[in-house]
Amino acid sequence: MKFLRRFLDKHSRHYDKGGKLERLKPLFETLDTFLYTPGTVTIGRVAVRDALNLKRMMMMVVYSLIPAALMALYNTGFQANLAMKNLGITAVAGWRGSVLEFLGVGIDPASIIANVIHGALYFLPIYIVTLAVGGLWEVLFSIVRKHEVNEGFLVTSLLFPLILPPTMPLWQVAIGISFGIVFGKEVFGGVGMNILNPALVSRAFLFFAYPAQISGDSVWVAVDGFTKATPLAEMANPAAKLSLSWMDAFLGNMPGSMGETSALACLLGAALLVATGIGSWRIMVSVFGGMVGLSLLFNVIGSASNPMFAITPQWHFVLGGFAFGMVFMATDPVSAAITDKGKYVYGLLIGCLVVLVRVLNPAFPEGMMLAILFANVFAPIIDKIFINVNIKRRALRNVK
Q1: For 122, phi and psi rounded to 5 degrees?
Q2: Distance between the two ends of the chain, CA-based, in angstroms?
Q3: Which of 78, 172, 196, 225 is the most exposed place for a label (fewest CB within 10 A)?
Q4: Contact assessment for residue 194 and residue 184, using Cβ atoms and an 8 Å cutoff
Q5: CA 360: distance to chain centroid?
Q6: Do 336 and 374 meet the contact criterion of CB atoms below 8 Å apart?
Q7: Residue 222: closest CA among 318, 120, 357, 145
């Protein structure tokens, strides 16, 4: 490692101002700071010193996503292996089958290792494409704007694959992350300037541009020709019978987007985010409270024709992407409300909207994505209202 450190120091002059590789300095700094702690330090009294800088904060979010990512590997493989076993299929087709055969892994839904390896063959290609294509856009905009590559992309690049179905075509993954990075973040000025969550913008684009590949019953289990509705879709269908227990849903053993199925994994991530002060507990609590309040109201009202009115808060919590969105998407510090009181209003708006979409529009039983994006748009207005109230209160206090 000392050799690598000397090598980087020796060639750093080429990337400084006036060097022949000056335009590539953002790329060099990204590599240098990724491998080593920056050598520059803050001195004097003009700057605020804090152990939690942007890099450490983003890495902490990545760590909080590890339980959801591990569950994505396991459940994706488990759902595929279970479906293949029920269909009597004994081998996986294509290159994935060759890899499993080489590793000596069979079709066994009872084997954790078999499930994780099989799931990784679907998750990792999507993650790699997201990193490569999204990272290319990040570097390109950094070079043009002459600033370092921001670590925020590490979070977006992990969030995006987790909210996709395992069957998503890789070329659509590339288009989706390109749209999210360019039009969801960079056109606003980059990290810290965007008003919408880039990962959700990417998914929303794919949902409306390629609905057949991201909705319906055939995209959630990675087996050709196999169809299985998500539990939310089953609940929206009066003729369908729910095929799992609440505990299975809480643990995440059900079809759905790869990283969104396990409420338990999301709660583990939430504990880390709240303990480190990175994720806002105010937003999480208010999102949950809004969902509970409105769903209980619909339970009381009831409906003879719409079974979604009868879904209780505990089921809303474990189904779809509610828990994942509440913990990792709604709390995005850039696109969420920043005032303390504004966070409560912002969270309540999301919690109520997701129930409204799920219950009153059974044709689209999810709702979390649209609820968060809608609240993102209103977050600056919510903050502005509370800021103006505080200004008026202070002005009256000074007059007295």
Answers
A1: -100, -40
A2: 65
A3: 225
A4: yes
A5: 25
A6: no
A7: 120
DSSP 59: H
Round to whole Å and give the CA distance between 127 and 115: 18
Counting Cβ atoms within 10 Å, is residue 338 exposed (0-12), middle (13-18) or buried (19+)?
middle
Is residue 153 within 8 A of residue 135, CB to CB? The reply is: yes
Cα gap 240→327, rounded to integer Å: 30
Which tokens go with 45? 């009294």
- Sign, Cα dihedral of 71, 77, 78, 80: positive
Query: What is the total residue count of the chain?
Result: 400
Q: Note the pTM of the prediction, 2 decimals.
A: 0.88
Which residues lie below 8 Å from residue 222, measured CB to CB, with a gap of 6+?
Answer: 76, 79, 80, 122, 166, 167
DSSP summary character for residue 150 = P
User: Hunting for tokens 């849903």 — which residue is that?
Assistant: 249
Does residue 34 carry a pLDDT above 60?
no
Cα Rg for the chain, rounded, in angstroms? 23
Q: How far is CA 283 from the centre of its chain?
A: 16
- Report the distance separating Cα 13 and Cα 27, nearest Å: 14
Question: How far apart, in whole angstroms, are the C-alpha atoms of residue 29 and residue 340?
Answer: 35
Tell me how far apart the alpha carbons of residues 297 and 355 are, in angstroms, rounded to a whole number.
10
- Token match 């609940």: residue? 235
Instruction: Band the pLDDT of 49: cuts 50, 70, 90.
Output: low
Q: What is the pLDDT of residues 362-399, one digit of tens each?
A: 667 688 999 999 999 999 999 999 999 988 888 887 76
- Structural contact between residues 311 and 268, judged by C-beta atoms closer than 8 angstroms: no
